[in-house]
Amino acid sequence: MSDRRPRAAWRRHPEPPPETASARPPADTPSVVQVGLYRDGRRVASPATLAETFRRLREDPAGMAWIGLQHPTHEELHSLAAEFDLHELAVEDAMEAHQRPKLERYGDTLFVVLRAARYLDAQEEVDFGELHVFVGPDFLITVRHGAAPDLSAVRRRMEENPDLLALGPEAVLYAILDAVVDGYAPVVAGVQNDIDEIETEVFGGDPAVSRRIYELSREMVEFQRASRPLVGMLHALIAGFAKYGTDEELQRYLRDVADHVTHTSERVDGFRQALADILTVNATLVTQQQNAEMRALAEAGFEQNEEIKKISAWAAILFAPTLVGTIYGMNFEQMPELSWGLGYPFAIGLMGVVCVSLYAIFKRRDWL
Q: What's the pLDDT score for residue 72?
């Protein structure tokens, strides 16, 4: 990829007719973020349109074009595909977001899909962006979907280091990879802080923590899908150092990026496991709390039943003399005991015997 060939060797249309160039949409639409032409690591022009970029690059075969787009139109991508001979499958992928991170080679052009991430402190969540990169012999095109990453910072850093930028589009690609991977570090720190807070909330009995664990677990799945494929992609680039004659300085940069993304991938795996363990602990604590509440309710019910037993027993004991007194209190003339001299003591004695008997029965059954 580092071999520089004349543009006529790889351009699909060496000299497009004038009407074709004029039919292309102007590049002053909002989707074109920035365009720069470079020679020997220094910017020599900043064309205002894609058509002007194509013309200036044809006039300077030793130059390099760095084109930055955000949510480009179909017409813009098709004009780039016609000018730089981009593969139709890669162009189709670049038109739509939600692609998996991957690295594919189409002839002299390398197509890379990256998933960038940034941590939003206010919302305490991870925001993901998508970046598609076309790398050719003398051009680099970035198609950005989302707010991350900030490629303007990458461009400034590369322009401040012309010796590195002079190494060509490969150097820009590695700088973009480095920016994407470096952007993972604040996300890792933010997620670690969230996990620490979640652990405190779990043991503090916060009922809303389960939802937060679930939402963070889903973000970690997305983060894992963004970072894990990069490990294989970077190792594939490292394996092609000898074949494509990659500069030794770029080799060192890429190995450093590979180390960082491997570390990030391992941290994300650890986060997923930690969240799974926290969710299990939270479920256990919730179950224990529910059991304790049910036990307290059962104990309260038992105590209530004991009180009801006592009330019922005393009510039965008091009901016995009331029943006897009620019978003897009826105003009937023909009652056997009305003229009996022992009737009164008999009634009192009967009340006492019944009450004592009931008391003994209830006491034996632990109702009193």
A: 85
